[in-house]
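Entry:
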Amino acid sequence: MISAWASQIIALTLAALAFTHLVTSGVSSQGTLIVQVPTRDGIVLCADRRTWNFVQGASDNEDKLFELSARSAFATSGIRAVHSPRDLSKLYDVAESVRKFFVATDALRIFDHWERLQKWLGESYVDYVRNGGLRFDSAHFLADGTVYTLRFLYLNADGDVRVSQIAFRQFRRAGAAEDTLEVGMTHDSGSELKSVRLLGQTEVATELKSGTDKRFDDLRRDPEIRRFYDLADPSRVSVNQGLHFAKLMIRVSHERHGLLPSGTRLLVGPTCNCLLMAPRKGVRWLGRNMRA
């Protein structure tokens, strides 16, 4: 069954589709830290390049930040793809599914197509499974069943920068005979557009903001980190400062994750891709495969 959940603005009911024969999982690749930083010249978005699966382990060559048009881009977090257990070839790729949708759709006006995109993401995955495709490995879902999250930056019709997010969830309700898919969407409000946002493996960032582990005190005292954690006015922040902070958060997440008591696997790599979404101007790449 596919359904949709409402958060803030968007509510969409997808057609009910049988989802009963998901028996075999493929090799799921996962990872990511996405850092979104508002500046006076637009929003900086960076994503690390690490991906991990239980066959190959970690590699740092996976792009998770994509340009759809001169006015739109997106980043992926969570399970990015399903691979064949035999040779690790990609059987289902979330980013390719999004890009395939926009081949036949006007990506310059991405905001006109949210409901269709939500439906496409749900139904294309179900069709893939019905045709014999291996499913996402539920061992790597988040506690609420989230499989992956997509973060979109784009210009609206007036040329203003906007941010929206799609979350794809899969779970089985108590007593149900089939899985439920939920494809939900949220849109950042005015205050959220002026705040630093992180998505993915954020444990280090959470420790810096609200933890008490003294081994992180040097980072808590770092003036660059303090500036953005207490950010009140993005108009005082340059693009270079925003880029520096985003790369810094990726680097310290990579370097300090092992100090955390959670014992979770490190899913953030030492390299990243970054772009700027500027009002009225759109996408400008700030760097690819950069050392964070």
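DSSP finds seven helices and 15 strands in the chain.
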